[in-house]
Specification:
alpha/beta; Aspartate Aminotransferase, domain 2; Aspartate Aminotransferase, domain 1; four-stranded mixed β-sheet; three-stranded parallel β-sheet; binds pyridoxal-5'-phosphate
């Protein structure tokens, strides 16, 4: 039964707290009483537990997903004169970290079927100046890392991948026919635990993972002013340290991540079914999110459809208490901050079309029974008008 008139928010941070309230309060109070507020034992434990969950050898806790990407590029010594290949349809941080180090983001269009960076576009973007590639697992779908690896190999150059897995904790990719968690395939994998993410902190937090001990050691130093011994600074680092309270909260929630992702997948399956049952897929221009390929598992950070008259539909749903999101309305290549790179409309047509058509529907793990059915009923009502 659809829920009548109940607001359907796109995130539910208070519900995540309530579900694990007792454990979270205990964990936070333990940190408060310890007096150990930055990094420390709690962060070391979170790093170990998160790396083990992901199947990576090393975890480095940092203060946000943005800092994770920045420290990864600092570790690779990206700087002026370098280029880093990034998709132009992503959150801005994927590209600004490159520019903040004085390097040039080399933008690539997306595959219109999957929203992910086009492997062919990636192959064409690699030059003698390319220092890294940042694949983004957009919306928590697996980016085609095998195809990216082949594209890099065929360039004849050795270019490391820094996976932007900010939206993709628990997502499973396929690598040489075998499953691998998003973030564990590249030299670095970078995660965000911003409160809207599948594994939400109660504030800012991020994580880097790698299987390379030497790079892990460098990142541990870079996140803490480049120190290799107390007050001895060997690398040009900054303050990207993770708070102990956030680590403690994340340790509690990490134990729930598989179940929370499973609930999101169930909502996604329910959306697919209701869209089909209401005949919405017979309407031109309405398209469901891409289906994971064999061996891939999406974490449904977003359930993003393509729809005609997107902004009108968004307003229609908002009037009925249903929150939706547009991720993202402008390609990164056309953002004012990157004007100096000289990109113009038409450069990346697939991303531009996506910016006009995408709409992310509520899919979080705390939706109530009937919410999905109601959202689709309201969408159906809009197109029947
Ligand atoms: C794809 C992507 N990259 C990077 C980030 C940056 O993460 P944070 O907000 O934790 O800095 C985010 C999240 O906001 C993101 O979605």
């Amino acid at each position: 039964m659809p829920t009548e008139g109940r607001p359907v928010p796109i995130i539910a941070p208070k519900a995540a707290f309530q579900e694990l309230r007792r454990e979270t309060e205990e964990a936070v109070l333990r940190v408060l009483a310890s007096g150990d507020y930055v990094l420390g034992e709690e962060t070391a434990l979170f790093e170990r537990e998160a790396a083990a969950y992901l199947g990576a050898a090393h975890g480095v806790g940092v203060s946000s997903g943005t800092e994770a990407l920045l420290v990864a590029l600092q570790d690779l010594e990206v700087g002026p004169g370098d280029e880093v290949v990034v998709p132009c349809f992503t959150f801005i941080a994927t590209a600004t970290v490159v520019a903040r180090l004085g390097a040039k983001p080399a933008f690539v269009d997306i595959d219109p079927e999957t929203f992910q960076m086009s492997p062919r576009g990636l192959a064409a973007a690699i030059t003698a100046r390319t220092r890294a590639v940042i694949p983004v697992h957009l919306y928590g779908h697996a980016a085609p890392l095998d195809e990216y690896r082949q594209a890099i190999e065929s360039s004849g150059r050795e270019v490391p991948m820094v996976e932007d897995a900010a939206q993709a904790i628990g997502t499973v990719c396929r690598l040489r026919g075998r499953p691998a968690k998003a973030g564990t395939v590249g030299l670095w994998g970078c995660f965000s635990f911003y409160p809207t993410k599948n594994l939400p902190a109660c504030g800012e937090a991020g994580l880097m993972v790698t299987s390379d001990a030497r790079h892990a050691e460098r990142a541990l130093q870079l996140r803490n002013h480049g120190q290799d011994a107390p007050y001895r600074h060997r690398l040009l680092g900054g303050n990207a340290r993770l708070d102990a309270i956030q680590s403690a909260v994340l340790r509690v929630r990490l134990r729930r991540i598989e179940e929370w992702n499973e609930r999101r997948r169930a909502h996604a399956a329910a959306y697919d079914r209701h869209f089909r049952e209401r005949g919405l897929l017979d309407r031109p221009g309405i398209r469901l999110p891409p289906r994971p390929r064999d061996g891939e598992v999406a974490n449904y950070h977003q359930y993003t459809v393509r729809v005609p008259r997107r902004d009108e539909l968004k307003a229609h749903l908002a009037e009925r208490g249903i929150q939706t999101g547009v991720y993202y309305p402008i390609p990164v290549s056309l953002q004012p901050v990157f004007e100096r790179l000289g990109h113009v409309p038409g450069d990346f047509p697939a991303a531009e079309a996506a910016c006009r058509e995408v709409l992310s529907l509520p899919v979080h793990q705390h939706l109530a029974p009937g919410d999905v059915e109601r959202v689709v009923a309201e969408i159906s009502g809009f197109y029947r008008k």
